[in-house]
Specification:
Strand content of chain A: 25-35%
CATH topology of the largest domain in chain A: Rossmann fold
Largest interface: A-B, 29 and 24 residues
CATH superfamily of the largest domain in chain A: P-loop containing nucleotide triphosphate hydrolases
Helix content of chain B: over 70%
Structural class of chain A: alpha/beta
Largest sheet of chain B: 2 strands, antiparallel
Order of helices and strands of chain A: EEEHEEHEHHHEHEHEEHEHEEHEH
Radius of gyration of chain A: 23 Å
Order of helices and strands of chain B: HHEEHHHHHHHH
Largest sheet of chain A: 6 strands, mixed
Number of strands of chain B: 2
Oligomer: heterodimer
CATH class of the largest domain in chain A: Alpha Beta
Shape of chain B: globular
Number of domains of chain A: 2
Number of helices of chain B: 10
CATH architecture of the largest domain in chain A: 3-Layer(aba) Sandwich
Helix content of chain A: 25-40%
Shape of chain A: globular
Chain lengths: 316, 253
């Protein structure tokens, strides 16, 4: 049995509409996902993440290239692919007129679960996702975050080897998001392969074994989270707590052209390209104000992401 | 089959949440027959001359009511795609482990069972209240005719629902289609007494074929050879609509 759960090779998707220029949403995309991994597809709006997920879940046919899920070609064997996968789409998808319990029941039936197993799973998932008190509420009466939670929870009703989560935690509050992320991690530990797209890079950093940063329909960086973070950019994050953030301090930092500068109360956060510049900024700030505390760490995935996408944008 | 039954189960759960809707869906053909049929029956007085026979308008109109209710059932069910699209669940369905044809068959199977109940209620009311002489020996064929008619119209209207993105546009298109098909058919009047152009157009209309078959089976009006041709015509219409609806659904995402 192959270790590869998903294989994408030179995938292209072009949308053609009458009297419009064709749009190349996916442009020669290639990547592999190992079984049991949590794989993150990251990228700005319009990068082609959702189109890729739609192709992998058989909602869209590719224009050219190959996409295989558990060895099945998505274009030639769509039903076989659907039998291996579960999907949370970017759009809310819930039966508004049915109770949460009946939402679970219909989903279980569609995936061929016996009635007894459906009830057991409802019990387990309502506990895991904190939905017990809402089981008899209708979909239309739930808040946006709760609807999303039901949608994600449904996916774990069935034991499919691959789960696609397209912006799964959108609209959830911090508490629900935490619960959902824990549940995703729990499911991954059982050996399921999870492919997720997200705008929240700290979420990807926390969950994913490997990530790919997409822009203009192709991957501009990929690998483990650590690999991507150290992609020759050597970004550093410098946090400075000062007694007072004066104009002189800001000017001194600006003159050194950091990649990012953010002021939050008495804290200045700076992202720079190398250690020498970080130390230079630290020295300059020290000369102009009283530094109470400073911290230099490697930059977050978000910093790397912004830098990569910016670089791509200016090159393109 | 499991996949088709899962769709039927889902449709059943949805309909169960709205008893008012369920009541009106079953009662509308009945009300049509009792109000419209009775009014015209009285207005016409001596009944209609059809193929040399005099028939009470109530009896003539019964099959029109039945075929209209098949069209109405198909229309309601195809409109459901807009509701599913608004709920977002439509696209999720397309990722479930079933074929597009299983999805469509499941959607219509529940509605066909509703059409059968509609038919039984309408025929019972026609017999008991309006004293229409029904050919009971063909009742099973009438019920099969209702099932096929509902499925045919649903598949046809589903094509339109998949191709149109806005529900207000869909409503307009369907209302105009319904109006044209209804009045260019044998639903309300016998075609041998209307202008030649209208009669010629009506013979091209699947609603005419369906109504004529149901009329032949319920009250015995019409000739067997014509009815056989109409059965073949409607069968082809059903198969073509199903094939094209599946094809359109495959591209709906």
């Amino acid at each position: 049995m192959s270790d590869t759960a998903i294989e994408v090779q030179d995938l292209v998707k072009v949308f053609r509409r009458k009297s419009h220029e064709p749009i190349k949403a996916v442009n020669g995309l290639s990547f592999r996902v190992q079984r049991g991994d949590i794989y993150g597809l990251l990228g700005p709006n319009g990068a082609g993440k959702t189109t890729t997920i739609k192709i992998l879940t058989t909602l869209l046919a590719p224009t050219s290239g190959i996409a295989r899920v558990m060895g099945y070609d998505v274009a030639a064997k769509p039903l076989a692919v659907r039998r291996q996968t579960c999907v949370v789409l970017q759009e809310d998808a819930i039966e508004l007129y049915l109770s949460v319990r009946n939402n679970f029941r219909t989903f279980g039936r569609f995936h061929g679960l016996p009635a007894k197993e459906i009830e057991q799973n409802i019990d387990r998932l309502s506990e895991l996702f904190g939905l017990r008190e809402y089981l008899n509420e209708k979909g239309m009466d739930l808040s946006g975050g709760l609807k999303r939670r039901v949608q994600v929870a449904k996916t774990f009703m069935v034991d499919k080897p691959i789960v696609f989560l397209d912006e799964a935690t959108t609209g959830m509050d911090a508490f629900n998001k935490r619960r959902t992320l824990e549940a995703i991690r729990e499911e991954s530990r059982k050996g399921r392969t999870i492919v997720l797209t997200t705008h929240l890079l700290e979420e990807a950093e926390e969950l994913c074994d490997s990530v790919a940063i997409m822009n203009h329909g192709t991957i501009i960086a990929g690998g483990s989270v650590e690999d991507v973070k150290s992609l020759g950019l050597r970004l550093l994050y410098l946090s400075l707590s000062l007694e007072r953030v004066s104009e002189t301090v800001i000017k001194a930092i600006h003159e050194r052209q950091p990649l990012r500068l953010e002021v939050k109360d008495n804290t200045v956060e700076v992202t720079v390209r190398d250690a020498a510049l970080a130390l230079d900024i630290l020295a300059a700030v020290r000369a102009t104000g009283h530094v109470q505390h400073f911290e230099i760490t490697s930059a977050s995935l978000e910093d790397v992401f912004v830098q990569l996408v910016d670089k791509e944008g200016s090159a393109g | 089959m499991r996949e088709v039954l899962a769709v039927v189960y889902r449709e059943y759960l949805i309909r169960r949440t709205s008893p008012t809707w369920l009541f009106f869906d079953l009662a509308v053909p009945l009300l049509y027959l009792l109000m419209f049929g009775v009014a015209f029956d009285k207005a016409l007085g001596q009944g209609l001359q059809v193929s040399g026979e005099t028939i009470a308008y109530n009896a003539f109109f019964l099959s029109g009511v039945l075929s209209m209710s098949c069209f109405g059932s198909g229309m309601n069910q195809s409109y459901g795609f807009f509701v599913d699209r608004d709920n977002g669940i439509f696209y999720e369905f397309l990722t479930y482990p079933m074929t597009r044809s299983q999805f469509l068959l499941g959607k219509i199977l529940f509605q066909c069972s509703m059409a059968v109940v509609q038919c039984i209620l309408t025929i019972a009311a026609g017999t008991l209240l309006l004293h229409i002489a029904i050919h009971w020996q063909f009742l099973l064929l009438v019920l099969i005719g209702m099932t096929i008619g509902t499925a045919g119209w649903f598949f046809f209207l589903a094509i339109i629902a998949f191709r149109i993105r806005r529900n207000d546009t869909y409503n307009t298109v369907i209302n105009v289609t319904y109006f044209v098909l209804m009045f260019l058919s044998s639903t309300f009047y016998p075609l041998d007494r209307v202008p030649a152009w209208l009669s010629a157009l009506a013979w091209l209309n699947p609603l005419t074929w369906h109504t004529d078959v149901l009329r032949f089976l319920t009250i015995g009006v019409g000739t067997l050879s014509t009815v056989i041709l109409e059965v073949i015509g409607f069968g082809l219409f059903l198969l073509l609509s199903f094939w094209y609806a599946v094809r359109t659904l495959q591209r709906a995402a």
